Amino acid sequence: MDFTVDERTRDYAARASAFLTTAVLPAEPVFAAQTAGRVGADPADPALWTRPPIVHELAAEARARGLWNLFLPAPHGPLTVGQYAPIAELSGRSPHLAPAAMNCSAPDTGNMELLQLAADDRQRERWLTPLLEGTLRSAFCMTEPAVASSDALNMRTTIRPDGASVVLDGTKWWSTGALAPECGLLIVLGVSDPQAAPRERMTMVCVPRDTPGVRIERALSVFGYHEHAAGGHAVIHFEGVRVPRAAVLGELGAGAQLAQARLGPGRVHHCMRAIGMAQRAVEQMAERAWQRETFGELLADQGVVQQWCGQSQVELDAARLLVQHAAWLMDSAGNRAAHRAIQQIKVLVPGTVQTILDRAIQLFGAAGVDDALPWASMFTAVRTLRIADGPDEVHLRSLGRAVLRSARPD
Amino acid sequence: MDFTVDERTRDYAARASAFLTTAVLPAEPVFAAQTAGRVGADPADPALWTRPPIVHELAAEARARGLWNLFLPAPHGPLTVGQYAPIAELSGRSPHLAPAAMNCSAPDTGNMELLQLAADDRQRERWLTPLLEGTLRSAFCMTEPAVASSDALNMRTTIRPDGASVVLDGTKWWSTGALAPECGLLIVLGVSDPQAAPRERMTMVCVPRDTPGVRIERALSVFGYHEHAAGGHAVIHFEGVRVPRAAVLGELGAGAQLAQARLGPGRVHHCMRAIGMAQRAVEQMAERAWQRETFGELLADQGVVQQWCGQSQVELDAARLLVQHAAWLMDSAGNRAAHRAIQQIKVLVPGTVQTILDRAIQLFGAAGVDDALPWASMFTAVRTLRIADGPDEVHLRSLGRAVLRSARPD
Amino acid sequence: MDFTVDERTRDYAARASAFLTTAVLPAEPVFAAQTAGRVGADPADPALWTRPPIVHELAAEARARGLWNLFLPAPHGPLTVGQYAPIAELSGRSPHLAPAAMNCSAPDTGNMELLQLAADDRQRERWLTPLLEGTLRSAFCMTEPAVASSDALNMRTTIRPDGASVVLDGTKWWSTGALAPECGLLIVLGVSDPQAAPRERMTMVCVPRDTPGVRIERALSVFGYHEHAAGGHAVIHFEGVRVPRAAVLGELGAGAQLAQARLGPGRVHHCMRAIGMAQRAVEQMAERAWQRETFGELLADQGVVQQWCGQSQVELDAARLLVQHAAWLMDSAGNRAAHRAIQQIKVLVPGTVQTILDRAIQLFGAAGVDDALPWASMFTAVRTLRIADGPDEVHLRSLGRAVLRSARPD
Amino acid sequence: MDFTVDERTRDYAARASAFLTTAVLPAEPVFAAQTAGRVGADPADPALWTRPPIVHELAAEARARGLWNLFLPAPHGPLTVGQYAPIAELSGRSPHLAPAAMNCSAPDTGNMELLQLAADDRQRERWLTPLLEGTLRSAFCMTEPAVASSDALNMRTTIRPDGASVVLDGTKWWSTGALAPECGLLIVLGVSDPQAAPRERMTMVCVPRDTPGVRIERALSVFGYHEHAAGGHAVIHFEGVRVPRAAVLGELGAGAQLAQARLGPGRVHHCMRAIGMAQRAVEQMAERAWQRETFGELLADQGVVQQWCGQSQVELDAARLLVQHAAWLMDSAGNRAAHRAIQQIKVLVPGTVQTILDRAIQLFGAAGVDDALPWASMFTAVRTLRIADGPDEVHLRSLGRAVLRSARPD
């Protein structure tokens, strides 16, 4: 094994790091000021859900620095999944700004990957090109409120072929970004043939957000946050929504496979961004520890604080290696071969990062839960990762069954 | 030992339980509707921070049912600390409504205890009577942003005697309830004599909120929540605030002792309410488990869910006994004798409840972090308890040093 | 609730404490010296498995001090289960000596309870009287090597009625005490009617250890220990073992119920002794912390050590209350009503104590794993408790299902 | 980063794996039989502490297969630290046999590394050559009973230069292997100049075990085990032990540096062997899960078992990568540059493996603590690793302080 970071990665990481330090982190208070008035959950008010000007300024800057669309794995972009991983980590240090500025934020990234993989020319032109340009945004509609969505067979939304159209009926939620006025595209997964074999039962469709029958009911909250600038999280009803068959991604019945393919790189991105959050937390815990004194002793000189810093860094370094390994497996053997490795990081990383952020909050005391510092918001983001794309327990179950299967008699 | 619940407690608990079931829980959606428009953190907008009508309706109902001011320990109220504990637990099941409806919500309760203990007749008439009537609300101003407040010797706010007045200068934060328009009283702790012995260095003063020089800078957030109906959490500047010496509680130099006395019953209340939250969570986890199916199996039939339910209930039952024991010690031997027992519950209960609520969120999946269910908000409340009144680590340190002291060679 | 310790308990506890301090603890090195030559696992060598002289000396002393057979719940002994609990805790501080000296050691205690409950006059005279006198010892044969014994329906040993006899066939293991030469009685549980309803399928029989067909195969080890003075843990084969029907305890088919009845008080005893181990560990951790210095600082002044001491004591105090509560429930409502409370302590206490002993070992460093100190041996004892009488997971499952059942629709 | 396992490593690993499967694992019952009579802790009985014949047979076999002394890092052996790591893991699956058979067992390996590094020609000939041949064994005497040895400045053993000799006085313990009759060499660390700077205060000396004044007091136990075939763990007194100055390793005052150098690869070996133990445990947990049934369901179908298997494998895979990374750093940047990486694995791996072995014991039930299965013995070995070479807390403190130092103002 060779843990050397290659030249190209070092180059991009250095540039991303410089961008972060000189442009993004100083822009955080600007972002806070520009979004300070964004309160409430009114789905009908586009001003709430749009990106503030600072994001567009940073985007121009990122683009000028060659830090644009880096998430797209080679050959479509300059970096492999493994090479992009450290960039994703860096972007996670400022999660509201850096990913968006670099056109590397979920769910657009996953949607662009999907379109790269499965879109035909017309779909590419209509959806992929503007997404890559950053002039369009999109949402992904998979999870449903009425059932345990971690088991795909529970899905109730239907995508019924009807002549030259398909017709969608059902309710989705946690459609992140769907409230943003820039969001023009909903990629929707639904059951097209309930009698088909499980893997051929579902279909994925590109639905323009303004299609009749699409109705956004409300914006969900994540702990007390609505994540306005990210376009929120929507509950969306599809009531007899009719789109042409040409809106189907890939083909009828290919939805399950496409959904699977979409998840791999995204989980690496999520995990690396989470690691970036925790790494920033550890560093700022250390800074804070030199500034606070209790009972006549700097926090930095207190044993419990030292243990927290040491323990957090070890856990983080181990978690990062596991993610890098999964990324390498994707690059070298393909997403399918990396399936279990990706489940492993899904299970290990968010929990690890949650624990570290919990320590950070504790060390920062009452300041730790308020929004003047990023920890509370980061905490809720990684807490949610333990549920998103299936709760940890479903993945652990799957990993455990794989271990057990290897030992199965005959 | 006799774990029998006495007749009086059973009676009050039965009434509180009936009140909860028939009045409070059905009012939760009303509360949600009445506060739905409360967004943002504008300290200047009183409409944001006042109690909605449903609280007043419930208060009338609670009063009619004899469930009013029960927190006041006998002989001032009908119940001992230990007898009130199960009532506090019940009220924690609906933390936004039940404590307020019963005039049993922090920080008013602690302030009323303080006034009961140390106020002179004029102070009682001006402040205690309307607080007991529920026509006035109050805040407690102790924690400061610039220092580690868990070490009281770090305190920087000064309360300088000046002729017939005392003059306050300094900044406090996490003054819960201070933004409510009904809040007329701030009880402030500050240094009156920096040269005095530690225990005589501080003084506590009753400051009318409209006194010149009192300036509320901003409302703090708790994981994105502003807790509007509770009157928020304020950053307050005291700039040359002058009040008459008669506003001093007890006497000059008595602040530290009063602060200590204030904490005891309040911690029991906080812990029991937290246990009530967790108990409700366990029960609703169990309900949910019969409604959801994954991979062909009800959650209720899945081993991990069974372990979570079993484990949570055991941890909860042990934690509850520890709190009841601390309450009994307060009743039978006094708050001072119960000092360590109170530190113990401060350290054990919020962490235990946080873990259980984390499980609840996990079991409820994506619904668990949204506000249509109470778990996310409860989670942030108990997470904050691990910091409030000193972080766990400070109390563990104190408890550990007590253990060590017992073994100290001569 | 009234947590006052009653007069009788205080009296017995004071005497037990004095016995421990003045007689038992000073005898520990004598016990170590007298058993130092006991090595190996030869089941045929009685000298290995007998109690050393010091136990008999202490027994005489305990009897003289009125500390004999205290485990027997009133009205058969002077103490209720709850009153005996603190005595059991004290005895756990010296687990190899104190319980044996007071004729309060498992499995004899459970067997005496069984005989008290279900033996007829002849059985009482033959078995119970000498057990109470301490002139006989006994083993309990339930667990089997070939199956998961936590599910009683897996049991394979048969107790076949045959005329005026019953005939036993099968293999038992973890029959503690069975290798002691003083052990004259094996109480064996087996299937007497495989067609009967589950609760009537089993029977319990008193088998003299020297009955033909009883064959001890080997002595098991517990992490390297053979627990010689306790009579070891035996694998026992029953091959056509014939005893008269009069040897049946209670009646044919009553075995399951008797087994259930046996477990209650025993679990309280086990848990309280485990708490005694941990309490001693905490106290000696504190002593040690004043004697060791690293990096220029006494351990007692180091934050991590303080946290360990504080945390351990809190966990211990909560665990102890849970056990006392279960004991009170047994005393006031009976073993059956206390069933879940007993499962709760079974699940909470050994794990808690294991964690505390793990900390003790860590604090004592390399000395902590060697036998000159009691921690390693205690650790293995409580680790084993997490498996004995069914692994924690089986009890958690049962507790969880009870929680779930309460929420079951219709 | 490139996680590809190189050709040479794959080759050696395949051979080691074949050796394990075809020779070592089948020899485990032979080893058990040949050492079954080894009981007690008599330091004077060499038969107790010698390797049984099967080890020598396996050693011949290992040598014939080219699996001898592989631990010696290139250029002295065929493999780098990183390449040897997977071999060490494989050897850990049978910890009593495989490392010894391959002449790769501690403490001989560390001692050979030391001699390779610092021995002069005569020392090499006398000690290194026979150690490499496997005809000699050795012990390392560093830890002391009277002080906290994790702080080297506490050391009390003196190595006083006296003319052409040095004279040793002091007591060491946990000198693993010292009781073996094959053990001819003790490498001893002591204070040669208490006035010197800390890093020049100590000296390391090669002491023939039969030197007058060397007295083995007793054999220590590890949770009831004496690890006879490994030569036990000795308490050794050095009373006026005189050896020629030529016995000094390196030079006077070089002891601290040599001790530091010795630890690096050894910690990688320890950690990889521990991972091998856990990996075997996970695999056998899975096997067992198909053989046991409770409550009508195979363990393999039970959720908790699935979680344990999944969780264990994830933790193991992350831990293994962290060790591989540390090994790579040693290979590519040297032991000193890898210092913190080595502390990290010291802190992460044994705790992780302990947790997994604890699960294994739980899953195997009562069988899990008995010696017919390897888990109990493995558990005690990794538990001890959390103390050996300094307790985890000392390393966490050091790691934490390094994190904090990076953030130190100016």
What would your notes on this structure say?
Four copies of one chain form a homotetramer. Chain A is an alpha+beta fold and about 400 residues long. The first copy, chain A, has three domains: about 5-135, Acyl-CoA dehydrogenase/oxidase, N-terminal domain (Butyryl-Coa Dehydrogenase, subunit A, domain 1); about 135-255, Butyryl-CoA Dehydrogenase, subunit A, domain 2; about 255-405, Up-down Bundle (Butyryl-CoA Dehydrogenase, subunit A, domain 3), CATH 1.20.140.10. The first copy, chain A, has twelve helices and nine strands. Chain A has helices spanning about 5-35, 45-50, 55-65, 80-90, 100, 110-120, 120-135, 255-290, 305-335, 340-365, 375-385, 390-405, and strands at about 135-140, 160, 165-175, 185-190, 200-210, 215-220, 235-245, 295, 295-300. A four-stranded antiparallel beta sheet of chain A has the order 2-3-7-6, with no helix packed on it. Chain A has a three-stranded mixed beta sheet with strand order 1-4-5. In chain A, a hairpin with a 2-residue loop joins β8 and β9 (about 295-300). In chain A, α1 runs parallel beside α4 and α10 runs antiparallel to α11 (about 375-385). Chain A starts with 6 loop residues before the first helix and ends with a helix. At the A-B interface, β8, α10, α11 and α12 of A face β8, α10, α11 and α12 of B.
